[in-house]
Amino acid sequence: MPITLNAFPLEASNQEQEIQACAIPYDKDRYDALKADESEPYTIRRVGDDILIFSPNGEYPVRGKIKTFDLAKNYELFCFLAKDGVKRHLSSMGRQVSGFFPIELLSSKKEDNLLVPIIGADYPFQVVVKYKLDTQIIKGVPCLVIDCSTCREVNETCRYFLSKGFNLIDRYVVVEQIDGYKKLLGYVSAVNGDQLSVFGLDGSEHKIASSEAYLEASIKNFDDYIQHTHGSQKEDVVERIRIAISTFNGGENKNNRINLLKRYFQSNGIELVDGTLIGIKDANNIQGMCGNLERPIFVFNDNGEANWAEKGFTQYGPYTKRTFDRNDPSVCVICSKHDKGIVEQFIRRFLKGMPNSKYFRSGLEGKFSIGTSRVEVFTTDSDDVDGYKAAIDRSLKQKVEEGERWDLALVQVRQSFKKLNVIDNPYYWGKSLFFLHQVPVQDFTIELLDQSEYSLGYSLNNMALACYAKMGGVPWLLKSSPTISHELVVGIGSANIGNGRGNNQRIMGITTVFSGDGSYIVSSTSKAVAPDAYCDALSTILDETIAKIRKRMNWQKGDTIRLVFHASVKKFNKDEIQAVRSVIDKYRDYHVEYAFLKISENHGLHMFDAATASKDKGRFAPPRGKFLNLSKYETLVYLIGQSQLKQVSDGHPRGLLLNIHRDSTFKDIKYLTTQLYNFSSHSWRSYFPNPMPVTISYSDLIARNLGWLNQLPGWSDSIMIGKIGQSQWFL
Predict the structure, then answer these.
(1) Which of 184-188, 347-351, 696-700 has maximum average pLDDT?
(2) Quick one: which of 398, 429, 424 has its CA closest to 411?
(3) Residue 526: its pLDDT value, please?
(4) N or C end of the chain: smaller count of CB under 10 Å?
(5) In a domain, 629, yes or no
């Protein structure tokens, strides 16, 4: 059965494919001035130290050197000019387009507003169809990439919302620019009649008429306004909207929509600035070019092997079954005094198991062979920070008096805590206080207890896996076939921390280091840092980790060391690469090779597999492990496939685009793709495959947790230097 990409080959109508441009030396001010003058029909592009000006008629606004380019040999320039032709064509049709990397186009059709059948056509918010168009060289062929999704829009000014009695205080607003862009202005600090006082992100204050500003189309404003208009029906409306959006993004509809726009451009063609006509071909069948990655093999107790974790546990038990040092664990439970009875029942099922569950019959104790737990419950008098602090203090003092330490703390929280500021959030205070005493924490919401028996079994199964890892156990490792002496895989993640748009801080997490077999290694200085301190922290942590591992594993002079870096960044910059090289230079006694692997979710490419066209869910979705090498440096791979989707409305799975930086000294894309795929099955947070490798997902979790914990009074990252920092405390 055919497999296609949403990438359509481009070809020029003439054979010569040459184009002329006027070249002048690059100067930023001059370049900006030329780009800003949209009244002239020129196309401007910087190439190296030149500004290239392409003209429709051979006339140019400045004098320069005329150069001729063969587009058949310069695909990057060909792709740029083709995309420029697409944008000019859409603009000439009166369509409002924005951006260039990629071009974005919103549908203006009434039927393309997904809210109409749910709420009605007159609602001030919309969920509209959005197309993205870009160009990319795939397998050496320039292609037009067309993607289709949805986005939220607001089509009424703030005056409308005031007339409906909607509170605008503390809500972010935008103003519409001449080019159609909506620029973030700030948040509303006061309303005086028809005037809004807006506090800007830079600290400035503005006065603006409510008829000149729009609410930001954020999920918060969207949800709050639905609450305002629909009250108790809000949850039902939100769920219907979620299903509508997910169904729209299903493979069958996405494929149809993309091909509809493709056929439009096929019938009209794409005209370059000089009048050259570009044709668009149908997508190629790439079925024969794709590969299929095999399921990884996991290693369990006594070196037992299985390609399915549940099977491995049943046959062999966890990897550290014989060496686990927290048997018959001492377990502390923190819960509300009003929920003590049902929480005790829940904890018993968690520890002892659920007889009718498919995978959790024997509970944490039986499945992981940890003996019999010693449980004590401490109740909170209130659901605020003071109530939790008091209960946690009592539990810790009791253990100190006994000369012991809790092996695990189970803390009951509520879903509503997610809306609280970190300083008022019992969730983070609970982690902070227990971590201070080197006690791993597993939180669970009281709402979890309302699940059906079937769903609860799966939830408890995953919760037990995470708890075992937090207590220092190793559920399984990956089977590896080492071809070199030593290999380390370093994960670089990040998180946005903050309660307001202007106060957010980007936090980098660079603390997940794995050996080639999936063994989790943590340096003694686990950190989450702001971007401006990131490169220094990266080199420091890498240096300390290598020194630690070199001693532990007795590296010998002449050994080969391979360092693989995973990062979900826009690109690896020269500072990151230099930070790594500065460390590598210290280890000249070894042969060191390294690879920088950029991992991207937002790339616009999709595979459509006709083999699943008749499935009930995941129509046209490829299987997990399907991959296509786009070039020697790039691969599209699916870590989640058709079988991993749970329901019809789950939409089309998103593949990952892997890109090896050209400065890497190790460039085997197939090896690196297989390794990343294996790491996506290596999360001890869940038995299900992860849409990201643990190198990234663990780093993101560390960045998020440490970023928030650092906002609590008295917290210090030095707390993580102890045993707690050597475990998967963040799961």
Answers:
(1) 347-351
(2) 429
(3) 46
(4) N
(5) no
